[in-house]
Structure formats: C-alpha cells, structure tokens
Amino acid sequence: MFGNMADMMGLMGKMKDLQSRMKEAQESLSGIVETAESGGGMVRATVNGQKNLIGLDIDKELINPDDKEMLQDLIVAAVNKAYERIEPKIKEHLQKATDGVLPNIPGLDLGGLMK
Fold first, then answer.
1. Which residues are 38's β-sheet partners?
2. Domain encompassing residue 81
C-alpha cells in the first residue's frame, strides 16, 4: 500500500516539474521565429512560437488600390505558410523542455497544453 502512495507522490512531483518546465518553455517560444513568403517573395510574413505575427513585408509594387484582393490573398498565404513552418519548431521546443520528466508516451502531444 505504501509503495503505491510513494509512486503517486513521485508522479505528483513530476507533474509539478512538468508544469514548471512547460511554463518556461512557453515563455521562451517568442524567441523562435519563422518567415515564409508568397508571390515570389513579394510578401514575407514572420511569426513567432507564440503564434503571433511579428513582421510583414510587402513589396511596394504590390500596393495597388485596384488590386486589393490579390494583395490580401498573398498576405494570407504568406502568414499561413509561416504558421505551418513554425509548428514543428514549437513541438520540438516543448519536447526538449519536458525531456526526461515524463516517460515517452507514444501519441502524447504536449502542444495542446499551450492554448
């Protein structure tokens, strides 16, 4: 009976350590950045690991009031591509931060804890 209690206390300690590491990892995600482009490089979007758009560069040749829809489409495409590229970096960062705290459980995705 005492063995189970000790196991439970050990697990609780690991969970507390995991929470602390996840908090630190999430705070440091702002330092991870990814840039993607669309329109052959005429629109570039930069996002960080906290999923914030932190930079947007638009070639001045694209700024034409008569072609607003194309510009909007290129911005959306660049931003979405940057978010796709940052996702694996976020996952890797969180896995490194929690490495050794919990046993490797196949299918366990800690990315969901970030929301």
1. 43
2. 27-101+109-113
Question: Domain count of the chain?
Answer: 1
Low-confidence ranges of the chain (pLDDT < 70): 1-3, 101-115
Q: Does residue 5 fall inside a structural domain?
A: no
Check which CATH number belongs to the domain holding 90 and give it: 3.30.1310.10
pLDDT for 7: 74
Answer yes or no: is 11 within a domain.
no
